Hints:
The complex is a heterodimer. Chain A has helices at residues 14-17, 19-30, 44-47, 60-73, 79-85, 89-97, 101-108, 112-124, 134-137, 142-155, 175-180, 197-207, 219-227, 241-244, 248-257, 313-323, 333-343, 430-433, 443-448; strands spanning 6-10, 34-38, 51-53, 86-87, 128-132, 165-168, 187-188, 192-193, 233-237, 260-265, 277-280, 289-292, 297-301, 360-361, 387-388, 407-412, 438-441, 456-461, 464-472, 480-484, 512-518. Chain A is of the alpha/beta class. Chain A folds into three domains: 6-169, 3-Layer(aba) Sandwich (Dimethylsulfoxide Reductase, domain 2), CATH 3.40.228.10; 175-361, Rossmann fold (3-Layer(aba) Sandwich), CATH 3.40.50.740; 407-518, Barwin-like endoglucanases. In chain A, strands 16-20-17-19-18-21 form a six-stranded mixed beta barrel. A five-stranded parallel sheet of chain A has the order 3-2-1-5-6, with helices on both faces. The radius of gyration of chain A is 24 Å and the shape is globular. Chain B is built from eight helices and 16 strands. Chain B is elongated. Chain B starts with a strand and ends with a strand. Classes of the chains: A alpha/beta, B alpha+beta. At the A-B interface, α2, α11, β9, β10 and β11 of A face β10, β11, α6, β13 and α7 of B. β11 (277-280) of chain A pairs antiparallel with β13 of chain B, so a sheet runs across the interface. The structure holds iron/sulfur cluster (SF4) (3 copies). One iron/sulfur cluster is lined by residues 149-155, 179, 201-204, 206-207 of chain B. Chain B: One of its GO terms (cellular component) is membrane.
Amino acid sequence: MPDIDTLFLFGSNPNEGHPIISLYLKEAIANGARLIVGDPRKTWMAKRADVWLNLKPGSNIAMLNGIINVILENGWENKAFIASRTEGFDELRAKVKEYDLDRVERLTGVGRDRIIEAARLYSQADKAMIVYGLGVTEHRTGTENAMAIANLALVCGQIGRPATGIMALRGQNNVQGASDLGPLPATLPGYQSVADAALRGKFEKAWGVKIQDKPGLKSVEMLDECRRGNFKGIFILGEDPAHTDADAKHVQEALAAVDFLVVQDLFHTETTRFADVILPGASFAEKDGTFTNGERRIQRVRRAVTPVPGMAEWEVICRISTLMGYPMAYNHPSEIMDEIAGLVPIYGGISYDRLEEKGIQWPCPTKDHPGTTTLYTDLFSRPGGLATFMPLDHQGSGEVPDEQYPYVLITGRIREHYNNGSMTRRSAGIAEVVPEELAEINPADAAALQINDGDWMRVSSRRGELKVRAKVSDRSQAGNVFMTFHHQDTLTNILTSGFRDPITGTPEYKSCAVRIEALG
Amino acid sequence: MTSPATIVINGKEVQFTGGQTILEVCRGAGVPIPTLCHDNRLKPYGGCRLCIVEIKGVPRPLASCTTPAEAGMEVTTESPRLTRLRKTVLELLLSNHPNDCMCCEAAGNCGLQTLAYRFGARLDRFPGEQWQLPIRQDNPFITYEPNKCIVCGRCTRICNEVVMAGTISLVNRGFEVMPDTAFAKPRSLDNCEFCGQCVSACPTGALTDTKGRGLGRAGDVTKVKTTCTYCGTGCNFFLNVRNDRVIRVTSDLNAPVNHGNLCIKGRYGYDFIHHPDRIRTPLIKEGDGFREASWDEALTLVASRFKALIDEFGPEKVGGFSSSRCTNEENYLMSKWVRTAVGSNNVDNCARV
Ligand code: SF4
Ligand code: SF4
Ligand code: SF4
């Protein structure tokens, strides 16, 4: 992170979710960068922030509209940038005008002084960067939340120069690669649309089959069809949706309903309970391959020990496919990468011999192309070079607290564990220092509910209930409770709601309404 | 710098850029300089005095790690005087160091041992008082043997400068100075992140990874460079393998993303690999439970059941979920399998988070 002078961290807790990226951010702060944090939780970064926007969950758009409105009212916008690089500014101005400080204070719960100070710091900075995380995307308005962030960066022209821009931090190790290589219903590997006849033709020729031109079903849709009895067979490779998907009971019903379910994993999970056949998986230490990280760097994974089950997933897929009448045979994963390079232009120049020393960042179209450095700064660009403002309205979360369910449950991660916890809970030491789930509850709420630190409490939502111990902490603000989803004996996702971002299908993990009762 | 400036190192001209220290220029040019307190991840410290070099026109040797290179400097990195001074520094360190290399966890991976060997430093040149402090294993990850500490400050600096956890600092004064937590409290999640950065920075056996102790030292293991299986940052590290088991994870200081830094998951989250709970054979549902099956039986069943469902209900009724935890190659094959062997586009990766 070269000399950022202002860092706006929004809905991201990198100290827990991305500890090594947080080191770069810490370095920037140590070098004097100003820090604005938008987060309902009092995180490590929030405690050290110049301005902490302690907004209510689900009020991201109101917050950002309010900040933009303050900027425009004070004339702090970057007029030259807006004039030369953007379109749709008048519409944006008209929309954010509806978000005066009174209204924004009410919607977000953040005091006006903080809003004004955040607006001033960000807009007046020489070089300001926004880093956002799953606190932005894991809402039913996730895509719009991200657009609202883009609006702010564009209004201030904090984009397209070193140490400015917008950087998104995502969750899992190979979420980038898994998107790149085509397990997506509407695109073939490399984001090549199934609807495009020429692109389809290229794959049909290479694979020797006819490919359907109609997009397939998203995972949520497949599960919905299962529940209706309309979907017959699923192969789940290394995922645990019955634990990690929002509204997990709903998912479990679907998995129970499908005729034939194959699950491949390292351990028994919530999902393998529903399988007809469980196939043992090989861990990252047992196979060769590549992962692509958040800055699109393709890096080698190397086999260090013998696969416990005798073979790795890539070999298993090949054998199943061959038995089904479509032969697949590779001697080594490097041959799969060679095939990918021939079909996926952004990976066109990738081969294992080039990845020996250091990874390569895609796009890398040819063997002599050095790759493209992006360094975690995803810049906003559109053909034609003009960025369009998107006027957006506050919608709030799909489920908001009411008399029956008066608290907001925020879910997330902690540094020590990973996702369903199946790996970290089985790592000596980690299991010892964080043996169980602890729900973080604010001291005032805990006092009102007569809950002491370490007490058991019942947390229930419209979809289910569970028992969990309390951690009384001011990291949670009054009215909010925070839980992770790392423990199989505390299936937090039976509480979370079924609301999803309609564009990406990402569930609203970050906010649902719950009731809390003391169990002593 | 407008035009590339040069210094002379051991008679050879070498280019440098503004702001580089003499140590950086030398190492960049492949000229080795001994250090103990230096770590590329940290600010220059100038504590151990091993990196001293002679500069023409300067009477006393200077620490190369804290001296900026200046155009025209003539630097000598090896001379009888430098060797004598370095040997003395090492022998002073050894005067308060246990003679324990044969049992020490760090043997083979110890900066002090390597340099003592290289300079022929002896343990008994400066007889004197020695620390007699107990070994501390008061947490699950990190063993601290204060007697082996050379007070280079790398652990305290990485904890404060890089991790900013503030867990440890140099406490006490004079001969008693040593790194420790506040009030010598055991490391716990209340005061420490358990990132093991301090262990990775320690040049001696003073700080070692508890979980790997006794399982094999540097010379006994094969180091396999790989990429972390946890978050999307893409840190690289070395799996240390002995007898087909991962016994430890060590830092890859040249890793492009993380430069040797790791978090608790990357450094200590590896035991699941050999955990007894691993599923070892295919399992087929039978009644309320599962029974073990051979690969042949299980895969034949899987293929024939999918085939039958496709024949009966059409390929649109069958699909696959892929995983952000699998490799690129596996994700590609899953995508290909659904589109070829199955014949639909029903393929997705689960939660997109
Ligand atoms: S493990 Fe990390 S946080 Fe703990 S003392 Fe070492 S460097 Fe500091
Ligand atoms: S414990 Fe290791 S790193 Fe820390 S001061 Fe002692 S020798 Fe140096
Ligand atoms: S070591 Fe930690 S920060 Fe680095 S990739 Fe692994 S989980 Fe992420």
